[in-house]
């Protein structure tokens, strides 16, 4: 799919197929999220707001579930209000309960640990490798005990984890692997789609992910019995509220407009001047960041959100191709400056929801790039957004590599609104910050 050059004058010439735009960065500020939705998605969202009787129930849910499963090459897909609820449903379907242990790699989000804890089970945290941010397979093997009932395997930032190693351990102990694919829609491992290789998998379509329904999740599996239990769990979940669903649709439209790079240079400044206050619904509740169960946790996905997910799923390959091109451009330029980025092993095709790099001074890096782009800070903790990792059952010092990484990671945007000129501007800003730090005797890497 060709990506056109932004108009800077009378010329409307297109660049060759497979290229990425080179826009002028001076009047642009790239948002951390955006570009996954289209104007057509916004029109579709507004049409639901004009006909609210179609918001909650309708045929789009089944169509979306079927299309998602078909895309992955699995037999069953079951949609939910979020990825964390999809994980909770999988854990319940596998019979995970009080007295059981579930291995969870870090760094991750507190809602993953919460989903395990809500079943009555205990999350057992496993460290990562510094070069991939994915689970350290040797550490995982050491953590398996007679109480272990499942492994939650995160594909961090869309880079597939070592599935061969993890699946071999799981087979040896008779333990199911649940793939955490919230970052990894469209990634491949030895030709197979990520999400199709474990016993089950869950995805997120929250606004920061590869496709956005503002909030949303999907559980997938080839296990007919587990699928039946997931269907029963889904039927027991509450229907989403019309008012909250309408707010999610309004947020999708607002974010589509406000994150356009030429607009975002103004809207981001206003947001920051307001003290970063956002009146729109956020993805994580106050209860969840404290490790508590929020009200109305178990909910289904609405018909309106399913249609928006289905629309974007039809464009996901172009979306991911763009992310890979942008990530490749970043990696080539950053390597010259001495920055290290995750190096995909042979047979792995990442999805790059974002591209992580390690810096010594996160705040300085983010400030340096701020005129050109908003950088992400996944992960600022081994359990992101938790008031402290202890609320999720984490013991300080147990995963030192993840703890160290969580102090030094920034994430570069890869979404479809990022152009090659944006890449140049972001890398130049990082180079300036790095040069200053070297002049002060401080090293990044």
Element order: H for helix, E for strand: HHEHEEHEHEHEEEEEHHHHHHEEHEHEH
**What's the rounded overall pLDDT mean?**
91
Shape: globular
Query: For this structure, what is the CATH homologous superfamily of the domain at 317-439?
Result: Aspartate Aminotransferase, domain 1
Spatial extent as radius of gyration:
21 Å
Helix-and-strand structural type:
alpha/beta
In the CATH hierarchy, the architecture of the domain at 317-439 is Alpha-Beta Complex
How many angstroms does the end-to-end distance come to? 35 Å
Biggest sheet, in brief?
7 strands, mixed
List the strand order in the largest sheet.
Answer: 1-10-9-6-5-2-4
The number of E-state strands comes to 14
Low-confidence stretches: 1-18, 436-442
% residues in beta strands: 5-15%
At the fold tier of CATH, the topology name of the domain at 317-439 is Aspartate Aminotransferase, domain 1
């Amino acid at each position: 799919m060709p990506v056109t050059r932004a108009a800077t004058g009378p010329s409307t010439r297109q660049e060759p197929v497979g290229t990425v735009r080179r826009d002028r960065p001076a009047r642009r500020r790239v948002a951390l999220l955006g570009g996954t939705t289209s104007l057509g998605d916004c029109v579709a969202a507004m049409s639901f707001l004009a006909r609210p009787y179609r918001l909650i129930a309708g045929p789009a849910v089944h169509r979306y579930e079927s299309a998602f499963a078909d895309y992955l090459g699995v037999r069953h897909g079951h949609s939910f209000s979020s990825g964390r609820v999809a994980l909770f449903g999988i854990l319940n379907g596998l019979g995970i309960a009080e007295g059981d242990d579930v291995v969870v790699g870090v760094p991750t989000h507190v809602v993953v640990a919460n989903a395990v804890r809500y079943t009555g089970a205990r999350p057992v945290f496993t460290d990562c490798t510094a070069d991939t941010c994915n689970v350290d397979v040797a550490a995982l093997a050491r953590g398996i005990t007679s109480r272990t009932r499942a492994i939650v395997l995160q594909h961090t930032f869309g880079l597939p984890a070592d599935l061969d190693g993890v699946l071999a351990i799981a087979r040896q102990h008779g333990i199911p692997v649940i793939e955490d694919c919230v970052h990894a829609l469209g990634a491949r491992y030895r030709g197979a789609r990520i999400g199709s290789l474990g016993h089950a998998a869950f995805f997120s379509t929250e606004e920061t992910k590869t496709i956005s329904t503002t909030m949303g999740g999907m559980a997938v599996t080839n296990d007919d019995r587990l699928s039946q239990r997931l269907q029963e769990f889904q039927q027991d979940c509450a229907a989403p509220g019309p008012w909250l669903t309408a707010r999610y649709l309004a947020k999708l439209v607002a974010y589509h407009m406000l994150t356009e790079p030429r607009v975002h240079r103004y809207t981001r400044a206003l947001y920051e001047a307001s003290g970063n206050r956002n009146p729109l619904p956020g993805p994580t509740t106050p209860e969840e960041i404290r490790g508590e169960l929020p009200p109305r946790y178990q909910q289904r996905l609405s018909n309106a959100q399913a249609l928006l997910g289905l629309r974007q799923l039809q464009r996901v390959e172009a979306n991911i191709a763009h992310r890979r091109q942008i990530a490749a451009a970043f990696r080539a330029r950053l390597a010259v400056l001495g920055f290290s980025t995750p190096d995909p092993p042979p047979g792995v095709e990442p999805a790059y929801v974002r591209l992580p790099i390690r810096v010594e001074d996160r705040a300085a890096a983010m400030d340096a790039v701020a005129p050109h782009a908003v950088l992400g800070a996944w992960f600022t903790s081994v359990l992101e957004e938790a008031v402290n990792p202890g609320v999720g059952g984490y013991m300080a010092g147990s995963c030192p590599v993840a703890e160290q990484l969580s102090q030094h990671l920034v994430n570069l945007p890869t979404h479809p609104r990022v152009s090659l000129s944006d890449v140049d501007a972001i890398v130049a800003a990082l180079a300036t910050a790095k040069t200053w730090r070297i002049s002060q005797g401080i090293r990044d890497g």
